[in-house]
# Entry
Amino acid sequence: MKDFNSAKKELISSEITKSEKPLVLHVDDDAASLLMAEGPLMDAGFEVLHASDGLLALEQFEKRAPDLIIMDAVMPKMDGFEAIKKIRSSSRGLHTPILMITGLDDLESITRAYDEGATDFLTKPVNFFILPYRVQYMLRSKHTADELRASQARLDNAQRIARLGHWEWEIASNKVVWSREVATIFGFDERTLSGSMSELINKVDCATRSDVQMQTDQAVETAKAFSLEFIVSGNREKDGLSVRMEAEPKVDKNGRCTHMVGTVQDVTKSATARKEIHDLAYYDLVTGLPNRAQLRESLTQALFKSERMDNQFALLFLDLDHFKQVNDTLGHDAGDDLLQQVSERLAGALRESDVLGRPVATEISPDDVAAQDTVARIGGDEFVVLLGDIYRPEDAARVAERIAKSISEPYTISDVDVAVTTSIGISVYPGDGRDAETLMKHADVAMYHAKENGRNGFQFYSKEIHEQALSRFSMEKELKIAIEEEQLFLQYQPKLDMKTGQTVGVEALVRWNHPEKGSISPVDFISLAEATGLIIPLGRWVLKESTRQIQDWIDKGLGTFSVAINCSPVQFSRGNMVADVEEAIRLSGIDPNLLEIELTENLFLNNIENGVALLKSLKALGVQIAIDDFGTGVSSLSYLKRLPVDRLKIDQSFVENMHSDVGDAAIVSAIVTLGHNLGLNIVAEGVESAQQFEILRRYKCNEVQGYYFSYPLSCAEFERWVLEYESSQFKTGTR
Amino acid sequence: MSEIDHKALDNVRALQRPGTPDLLGRIVDLFVIQTPKDVAAISASVESEDFESVRIAAHSIKSSAAYVGAQQFSERLAKLEIAARENDLAQCQQLVDAIDQHAEAVIDELLTVQDKVA
# Structure
């Protein structure tokens, strides 16, 4: 027995902390039990305290704060159940282990004791040899639980300090359970600790919300981990918080994602710090403009994008003429002041970027333009402007000119008026180089040429581009003046009715009478007008002039002629064509039926529905509508019947070879038949010979125009032609 | 027929710590002194039909009796405990008389055991 006792002692006491003996409170109204338990407990290294009923137990508990309680169930004054309840309701007794002693067969007592908060149970008669082990085990568990609680508390604290929360998302129910920190970050009530994923995502800043939605959905679908950064708005921070969300999938045996387990962290501070570091590295301190490093990145992006999209872009390299003098005479602060003012003007000149200078197909908002363009200060008085996505080199010329003009306006620096100019060198991708180095070098070289050529100007690296751009650029300016000063005029080509031979109308063709270069063909300026958007005022002028002319001929008693005018898709896509037509009709007072709008099938190229809607609103004004160059575009016969069209104009290329090419003849014949079946009039253009005329007559084409009858005529010529024609050979239509 | 299971007494002896007062002696003393008082209290409680007091006292003696090896006595007290819980007066009265005599027999035998040891 002695051996057993000493072995037991060693075993148990070795686990007890050396500093202090654990205190056990033993509560029993049976003194014999207390006596018998005392020895083994003390042998095991415990200090033992007795109480003979529940009330005394509470007293001892308050006074001595035991580490563990052994509690009999049935006792006078206050039984064990009541005592446990009282102990558990005090804050220090929340986690104290309580070993309940109950009768062997008393299941009811066990249940009740458990409900009141008993930790473990022993049945009577108690085996007092086992008791110390049980007590020891309970203390050990309590120690583990304490550590767990402490660790949990530390973790909670750490998460709070790190502003880190965790969450678990059950995919099937779409329920997410999250920690308190998640609630704080996402601006939920602290007690709201679960919800749906969309409740979280709805708090994401709207700019990135759909992207976050997509990425999380995708991660679930592919059972992949994800890491996202976004702004969460609607929490206590006015500007929202930068949040990093990371998660890993839990998968079932089929590899399907059943849960996502993740964290969210408020990274606002580090994001701000990162941005500051980035700004220091990538922005110029004096002007706040991007520096050389940032320019290099923008340039790399522009190269990548332009290569893929087959775009052009331009680099404008500029320095300030005579900057050094300002610096030397007025000091460095004045120099910095000047640089700041210059950078503001540069940015201003770019903001005015002419959106109309972009191709029709790529409608870009002014914001986008600003986003694509970069102004950088790359050192001293040197600046570089990156013009992303230009349509033609002259777009760069236009900006360069505006920059030069803006910078040459006088400055006031330290109460002194200062004048500086700039010389700008331009390189264009891909013509002047396909990599950053080359483009920079060539823009630099071009800048020196600009300086040699007398400063305050720009110079393209490539001489050809320079001349071409200059000539087109100047033509653009001249065209603008031409529209304003009415250097444009209309010519009229008669259109004859095949049956009666009468002149039923004319096609109006715009001409440019250049003060120095003389008459310029539309071929040379219409595409320029389209590219620059000048086609809109030009088209407006044509509408006004042609409707005025219709009324003039009626007033003169010459006759009632319809006038067909050609319209560009640009007028529809960027102007307000319907309003312009309405205005012209109103001003002239003509019968709308006398105005015929000619357009090509290309108008429907991108969006048939839009095209149809547009034609319907035009048609509602009462004008006639003709499809020009029919058969050469991408005709879709299925939509033709839906269009409110009056005429088809057979392209002259078919007419030209009709008599020699069986295929062309067949096409012409087919177009006539098709048109007639759809109730449309058919006009043939480019009729040059009697032979062609004869064939068209046989095909029952309705109207004809071409050199065979008349070239396009000036107004006066046309008026004469009409009078002479009264007696001419075509009139009977019997020829 | 012996009322006392000596194995139970051996178990108590085994709990004896060296250098401390005789444990079995103290247990027996406790039992010998306390039990007649408790039994008298039980009788009084039965008479006044205070079943709760009967139950608690019976429960208490029941486990003491078990520790000193008075198995049959303990079982009889268990029955009393149940009868008290069920407020069965007749049963309680019947058991109390038997318990009174039974207690004397147990105490007598325990005293002999203790004398022997002493």
Observations:
- Residues 507-624 of chain A form a domain with the TIM Barrel fold (CATH 3.20.20.450).
- Chain A touches chain B through 21 residues (CB under 8 Å).
- The radius of gyration of chain A is 46 Å.
- The mean pLDDT of chain A is 85.
